[in-house]
Amino acid sequence: MAFLRCVARILLLCLLPQKDAKSHTLRCCLTEVITTKERKGRESAAMKADLLRARDMKRYINQLTVAKKQCEKRIRLLGGPNYENSEEGGADEGDDPQSQKILQFDDILCNPGYREHFRVYMERVDKRALISFWELVEMLKTANKNEVPQIVGEIYQKFFVESKEIQVEKFLLKEIQQSLVGNRGTEVFVRLQEQVKCF
User: Fold this and answer.
1) Could you tell me which InterPro entries the record lists for this protein (predicted)?
2) d(CA 105, CA 117)
3) Is the distance from CB of 23 to CB of 31 less than 8 angstroms?
4) Mean pLDDT per 10-residue run, the chain (199 residues)?
5) Phi, psi of 29 (to 5 degrees)
6) What whole-number distance in Å separates Cα of residue 85 and Cα of residue 91?
7) 99, 104, 108, 188: least buried by Cβ within 10 Å?
């Protein structure tokens, strides 16, 4: 504000006729008028900017609402819950997504009931081999020494010969083959199981 007053004083000294420029009272009044007008102009511009931001915020909220509706529709088409009914109170309290517990991936894999639901989902996205591999490796971990060769052979045949749904690097495939003939342990399967969890 002080800067504006200073600029206004200098402009008035330059622009006013010499007779009016000598009048201190006139210069002070005109300086105040100019600075007040400039300040009101800035406030008006700020108000316009706030109105534009509010309008943009409404548009953004509308865009998010549309995107949310599209996501809910896609989830419903893929067999997920109907979120629209739960907002209107049409769904049971247990079906409300906000009341459902968020499970960790390890919890899903360790619980047979949760794993079954996950298996159904994996079938739907054509990735059942991943969960089947994980389950066979779990069996391998707890198998007695007599069962190990049979399970290793089943894993090798099912996932690396017949379907090749689980892609592995050549050095890992060689380790698997060494395990198959008994020259190596089953650690390679445990490592692959961890990688499969990341798919």
Assistant:
1) Phox_assoc (IPR003114), RGS (IPR016137), RGS_sf (IPR036305), RGS_subdomain_2 (IPR044926)
2) 12
3) no
4) 73 74 76 71 73 76 84 81 59 49 81 87 86 89 88 88 81 87 85 79
5) -65, -45
6) 6
7) 104
Provide the residue type at 183 as one letter. Answer: N
Q: Is 143 exposed, middle or buried (0-12, 13-18, 19+ CB in 10 A)?
A: middle
Query: In sequence order, which residues have a C-beta less than 8 Å from that of residue 185 and are 6 or more positions away?
Result: 179
Residues 6+ away with beta carbon under 8 Å from 159: 129, 132, 133, 165, 166
Give dist(CA 70, CA 147) in Å, integer: 50
pLDDT reported for residue 89: 43
Burial track 55-68 (b if 16+ CB lie within 10 A, e otherwise): eeeeeeeeeeeeee
Closest CA to 192 of 141, 125, 117: 141
Give which of 140, 148, 143 is closest to 193, Cα–Cα.
140
- What pTM does this model have? 0.48
Tell me the C-alpha to C-alpha distance, in Å, between residue 94 and each of 61, 82, 118, 134, 141.
28, 13, 19, 30, 36
109 close to 146: Cβ distance less than 8 angstroms: no
DSSP state of 98: T
